[in-house]
Inverse folding.
């Protein structure tokens, strides 16, 4: 049974939901308060959604300086799986652990709605259990989710298969319909949609299951760093 | 130049009220004491015009744990879980600063709920604006919706529904109501009581600024030293709009729930209207103990604040906890973790003994603990002994003439197709901006008959149960007949819950009315309360909380009476989603419930959306008949509940026939499924658009079996038609393509909002 | 003439500024001590066609008060800027 650290910043609000997704698949979730500086014994890290530090200044801008982020960077550098969902994705790009940036949605309003995602790459801890072209219904819930990056970065993302999920119908103006990206090694992944909200047919969709199974290493071969 | 008004009048107190204060104190009040009475005896805090009527509402039932008068009503929802619910208005703040007005409305209602020990799990927002052809209304709508979205999403409580009404009577006085529901393990239920002499009153959360210092701001210029008059009211001291900080509130929620879980508090109370004076006097009055408050201990946001400003400020995101001294270190440590400021601002003290030897819980405002006493008044005189008014009432003189102009008397003219298209509005533009899914409980979210949640959350015992919520209003009916209109609104709400399989358990109300000094408004209020009483008694529902918002008027015109009903229901087993509106090709469509209204007319059009759009605001409102309504509602609720419990059923879709009538209900189902329907010829054009509760459109794939069950339950059923094709066809009256219905409905709101500024 | 106008919109004195306070509280952790009175606001930049500087500012002031700010809680300060 894997031990998954769910990082809690003041202002995080999807920590319970992320933990529920982990325990639903039989693993153990442990809340990691943002002032902690070690991740001893942790097998994977989730930065959940919410509004860390109120999202004041810019989403993720203050959270990246929380003490725990040093430990998360070291954990990722050794190949540990790190998943940033929504606000967690924003923190990872502010911290420079993932390329690009997230801007306000094209329509300048918050959007909470189901979206259809298309798996674009399976070389990441999140998508390794899925198949390319697979469609997954997963809701989005954000104000600043429009992914942007310069041409050079975009070329590189495409070349390395780092664009892991795209929107079938772009809801927010993201460049190249990007919904989620991975780092070059594939062990750090961020996405704006909320797979933890798509774990049960009772709530509308169970399509997030295949993503969490990938991240938690359930029913998939062990992840090998891409390098 | 005329001499300034006496201070008590400037503070909103009448001469008689001043006399009562003198009697209570046995002396002349000083200006700080007057200010405390001024805010606590305001209509907003004391309900002095409405309390006499509110007493008539039924409030008891075996499952009610906390009824009206506390911060929130609480019921036992089963499986060791208690559910708290509260509704409030934030109308006037939203009219001047829509974003912050709506945002702080959300913040306030959440505090009311977590004060009880419950984690807030859902918010709903009934909103009322003027017609969108006016640019100011568009500004208000966008501001209010983004305020709810900005605060609610960030603080981390899903917004799962509400209502959206446009009518010119709200043009200068929008209504922004907000309902919150929370849940707790039953043993965590706490009340806002101060007890235990020697205990400490700890202020948690934000610092105190000059926010929302209403009428008492007159003291800013009158001053304690009786300096200059209102002329010199300096700009910096003007009352300011409250600004919400959802991030502070989020930390406050977590800190307070952790304090309760760790058993570190004796009582806890939120700071809302009237700020510290309200929280300290209410907790002291309930506990029958005295309270010494040190004004110098309260952390301030601005320099130079006077004691009356500190005591009455409505700065947001603050709570008052009563703790024992030995727990202070643990409380301080927990608050440090959550970055919540905690300051000892008061001491619980022995009650005083008055001249007659009676024990009196006194609220003392001091300059330093043990320092000079700046104000000293019996806590209960502020909290519970505000004057009670039985204001004059009069049925509006022109009401009979208005009712007499009944649109049901005329043969409807015009194109039913065009009429139907005009009535279709999809509120998705609004609710897409709300996080409606957090906590993984939302089985049915916004935009449907009622919202349905799993009854689950951090720290709750595990349960298969669900809770359902609906907010409803019908100001058009209530303007014509506030009694029947309110009773029918309750019925409509219960019918909405039936669509998601829930049994109604408790009502909360937000009574939005005009100026209580107008006898017609008091009559409307009194009638509405009688109507609510009739419906609640008839349907077996307790009213467990409410809010009264008066003085909703502009330019001398009162708003239409707008009692908003918030209804909480429970479903015992929620393992599968209810059928919703998604009918399938080949399904048979039936109308469940009485086909004809029990009224002057078979298909009444008075107060309908259809008639209102034609400028016809008169007519008769249907009668309320609890027995007929309950039969249809209970039958439908039972059918849906068995589906939610995981049983097989021939029922594939259920939709309440509500605003807009039968034609709108059918068109909504066509729009969301993109499947057409073939409906038989109706009895008349009026049947398309007539409104009266207790009717449901049901789709079934075994119509014989369904009809047999309905007959067994004694509920009338009328076969209406079959699902299929690309057309919405209702006899010879309506013929519209599925695409047109869907696109008109989808685009209606956005197009109105996008109109040139 | 074309004038470059900058409008700073800030919360009025005495209005709670949660964003400013949160940033201020975060600074010591990054080693920035002695920084106080942090206030957040918005800044708008645009060109105004007008007869004179005064006329440009007048237009900008009216625009700022009617559209860019809510005078109930915010002050709008237009000034002629350097490009």
């Amino acid at each position: 049974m894997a031990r998954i650290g769910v990082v809690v910043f003041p202002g995080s609000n999807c920590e319970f939901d992320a933990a529920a997704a982990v325990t639903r698949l039989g693993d153990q979730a442990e809340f990691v308060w943002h002032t902690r500086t070690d991740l001893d014994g942790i097998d994977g890290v989730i930065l959940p959604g919410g509004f860390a530090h109120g999202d004041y200044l810019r989403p993720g801008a203050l959270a990246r300086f929380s003490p725990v982020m040093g430990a998360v960077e070291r954990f990722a550098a050794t190949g540990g799986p790190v998943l940033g969902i929504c606000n967690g994705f924003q923190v990872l790009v502010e911290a420079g652990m993932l390329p690009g940036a997230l801007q306000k949605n094209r329509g300048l309003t918050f959007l909470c709605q189901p979206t259809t995602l298309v798996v674009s790459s399976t070389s990441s801890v999140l998508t390794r259990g899925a198949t390319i072209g697979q469609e997954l219904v997963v809701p989005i819930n954000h104000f600043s989710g429009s992914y942007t990056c310069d041409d050079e970065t975009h070329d590189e993302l495409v070349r390395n298969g780092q664009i892991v999920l795209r929107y079938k119908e772009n809801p927010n103006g993201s460049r190249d319909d990007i919904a989620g990206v991975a780092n070059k090694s594939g062990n750090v992944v961020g996405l704006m949609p909320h797979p933890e909200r798509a774990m049960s047919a009772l709530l509308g969709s169970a399509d997030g299951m295949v993503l969490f199974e990938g991240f938690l290493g359930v029913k998939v071969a062990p992840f090998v760093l891409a390098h | 130049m005329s001499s300034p008004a006496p201070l008590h009048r400037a503070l909103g107190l009448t001469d008689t009220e001043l006399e009562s204060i003198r009697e209570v104190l046995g002396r002349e009040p000083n200006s700080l004491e007057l200010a405390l009475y001024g805010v606590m005896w305001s209509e907003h805090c004391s309900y002095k015009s409405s309390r006499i009527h509110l007493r008539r509402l039924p409030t008891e039932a075996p499952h009610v744990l906390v009824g009206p008068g506390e911060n929130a009503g609480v019921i036992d929802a089963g499986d060791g879980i208690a559910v708290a619910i509260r509704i409030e208005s934030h109308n006037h703040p939203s009219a001047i600063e829509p974003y912050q007005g709506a945002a702080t409305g959300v913040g306030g209602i959440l505090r009311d709920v977590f004060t009880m020990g419950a984690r807030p799990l859902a918010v709903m927002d009934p909103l009322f604006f003027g017609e969108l052809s006016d640019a100011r209304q568009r500004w208000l709508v966008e501001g209010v919706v983004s305020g709810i979205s900005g605060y609610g999403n960030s603080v981390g409580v899903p917004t799962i529904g509400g209502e959206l009404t446009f009518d010119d009577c709200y043009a200068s006085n929008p209504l922004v109501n907000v309902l919150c529901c929370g849940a707790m393990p039953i043993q965590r239920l706490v009340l806002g009581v101060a007890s235990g002499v020697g205990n400490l009153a700890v202020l948690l959360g934000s610092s105190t600024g000059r926010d929302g210092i209403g009428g008492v701001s007159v003291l800013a210029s009158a001053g304690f030293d009786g300096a200059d008059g209102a002329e010199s009211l300096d700009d910096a001291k003007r009352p300011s709009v409250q600004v919400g900080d959802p991030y502070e509130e989020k930390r406050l929620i977590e800190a307070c729930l952790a304090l309760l879980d760790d058993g570190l508090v004796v009582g806890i109370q939120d700071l809302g209207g009237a700020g510290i004076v309200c929280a300290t006097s209410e907790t002291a009055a309930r506990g029958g103990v005295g309270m010494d408050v040190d004004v110098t201990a309260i952390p301030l946001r601005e320099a130079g604040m006077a004691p009356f400003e500190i005591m009455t400020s409505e700065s947001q995101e603050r709570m008052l906890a009563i703790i024992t001294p030995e727990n202070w270190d643990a409380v301080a440590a927990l608050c440090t973790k959550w970055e919540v400021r905690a300051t000892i601002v008061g001491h619980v003290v022995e009650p005083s003994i008055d001249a007659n030897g009676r024990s009196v819980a006194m609220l003392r405002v001091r300059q330093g603990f043990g320092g000079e006493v700046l104000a000293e008044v019996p806590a209960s005189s502020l909290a519970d002994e505000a004057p009670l008014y039985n204001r004059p009432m009069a049925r509006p003189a022109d009401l009979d003439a208005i009712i007499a102009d009944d649109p049901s008397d005329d043969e409807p003219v015009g194109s039913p197709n065009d009429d139907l298209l005009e009535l279709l509005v999809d509120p998705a533009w609004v609710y897409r901006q709300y996080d409606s899914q957090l906590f993984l409980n939302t089985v049915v979210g916004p935009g449907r008959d009622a919202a349905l949640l799993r009854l689950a959350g951090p720290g709750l015992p595990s349960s298969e149960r669900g809770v359902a919520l609906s907010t409803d209003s019908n100001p058009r009916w209530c303007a014509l007949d506030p009694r029947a209109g309110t009773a029918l609104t309750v019925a409509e709400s219960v019918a909405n819950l039936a669509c998601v399989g829930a049994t109604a358990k408790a009502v909360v109300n937000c009574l939005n009315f005009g100026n209580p000094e107008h006898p017609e408004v008091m009559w409307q209020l009194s009638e509405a309360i009688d109507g609510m009483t009739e419906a609640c008694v008839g349907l077996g529902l307790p009213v467990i909380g409410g809010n009264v918002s008066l003085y909703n008027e502009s330019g001398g015109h009162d708003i239409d009476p707008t009692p908003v009903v918030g209804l909480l229901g429970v479903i015992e087993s929620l393992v599968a989603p209810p059928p919703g509106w998604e009918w399938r090709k080949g399904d048979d469509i039936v109308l469940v419930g009485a086909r004809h209204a029990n009224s002057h007319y078979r298909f009444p059009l008075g107060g309908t959306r259809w008639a209102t759009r034609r400028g016809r605001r008169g007519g008769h409102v249907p009668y309320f008949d609890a027995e007929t309504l309950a039969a249809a509602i209970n039958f439908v609720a039972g059918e849906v509940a068995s589906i939610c419990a995981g049983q097989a059923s021939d029922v594939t879709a259920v939709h309440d026939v509500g605003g807009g009538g039968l034609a709108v209900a059918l068109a909504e189902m066509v729009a969301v499924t993109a499947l057409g329907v073939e409906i038989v010829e109706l009895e008349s054009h009026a049947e398309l658009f007539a409104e009266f509760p207790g009717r449901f459109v049901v789709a079934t794939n075994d119509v014989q079996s369904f009809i047999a069950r309905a007959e067994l339950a004694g509920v009338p059923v009328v076969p209406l038609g079959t699902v299929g094709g690309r057309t919405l066809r209702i006899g010879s009256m309506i013929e519209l393509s599925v695409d047109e219905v869907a696109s008109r409905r989808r685009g209606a709101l956005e197009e109105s909002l996008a109109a040139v500024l | 003439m074309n004038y470059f106008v900058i409008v700073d919109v800030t919360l009025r004195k005495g209005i709670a500024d949660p964003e400013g306070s949160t940033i201020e509280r975060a600074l010591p952790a990054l080693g920035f001590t002695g920084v106080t009175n942090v206030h957040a606001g918005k800044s708008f930049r645009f060109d105004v066609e007008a007869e004179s500087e005064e006329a440009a500012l007048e237009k900008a002031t009216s625009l700022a008060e009617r559209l860019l700010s809510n005078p109930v809680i915010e002050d709008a300060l237009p000034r002629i800027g350097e490009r």
